[in-house]
Amino acid sequence: xxxxxxxxxxxxxxxxxxxxxxxxxxxxxxxxxxxxxxxxxxxxxxxxxxxxxxxxxxxxxxxxxxxxxxxxxxxxxxxxxxxxxxxxxxxxxxxxxxxxxxxxxxxxxxxxxxxxxxxxxxxxxxxxxxxxxxxxxxxxxxxxxxxxxxxxxxxxxxxxxxxxxxxxxxxxxxxxxxxxxxxxxxxxxxxxxxxxxxxxxxxxxxxxxxxxxxxxxxxxxxxxxxxxxxxxxxxxxxxxxxxxxxxxxxxxxxxxxxxxxxxxxxxxxxxxxxxxxxxxxxxxxxxxxxxxxxxxxxxxxxxxxx
Length: 306
Prior knowledge:
The chain is an alpha/beta fold. The protein folds into 2 domains: 14-152 and 273-296, Udp-n-acetylmuramoylalanyl-d-glutamate--2,6- Diaminopimelate Ligase, Chain: A, domain 1; 155-270, Udp-n-acetylmuramoylalanyl-d-glutamate--2,6- Diaminopimelate Ligase, Chain: A, domain 1. It has 11 helices and 10 strands.
């Protein structure tokens, strides 16, 4: 499962984005990466056709069981534009409609649970409002979670590594374990991550002065047993985590450090730790479907820091 950048400097469209800034401001879309206004593409493709293109190179696709389902709209609808995002929030839905797009490719759940079950939400006023808003704008929402993680390399991980400038350290033989060319003080790695992700702070269990070279990547929400097993196998200097249960991985790291173990834990938060992967997805989808405009709209970090 399940990362809040507003712009990306690696997109080939960068020059066009800068030139388009005045136009975006005129329609109230400053902060949105704009490949082109939706509806201006040359191809007429249904949502079904788009999904088939996106998953056709994923090993084992189509999956018999997956959360990657169309959660609203019709497969037979012609797409006017595509938006990628982490969470399909009310704000993302409104911005998608404003640029004339009608397909949101979201990494995470629409309705607050992994399977997007809604029977327990029928009386919830926020659920009712969100459902009505999506129907009003006739937005189709397709979840792109299992397939994006199954891609080789994992689409979320590749987007994160590009954001951090660490993609050259990726090892397909051990995709979750990153080895930096030289040991660095943990303080420097923390500063680098904060700068690249444009965040004021993050949570750390560890010593800022300790040396760090091996990093275990646990973006999103990884089961604590899997992380603890990785600690036993790799004994990494750092676990770079999205979110984790505080009474499990956090306490295992703390007790290990009290014993003299070196492994530290850095927690980014779920949204932040996967958003660059969906920012990268916009570029990846645009290359596969060049005739339909694709934009990334950040759902944003839900937390404020005081």
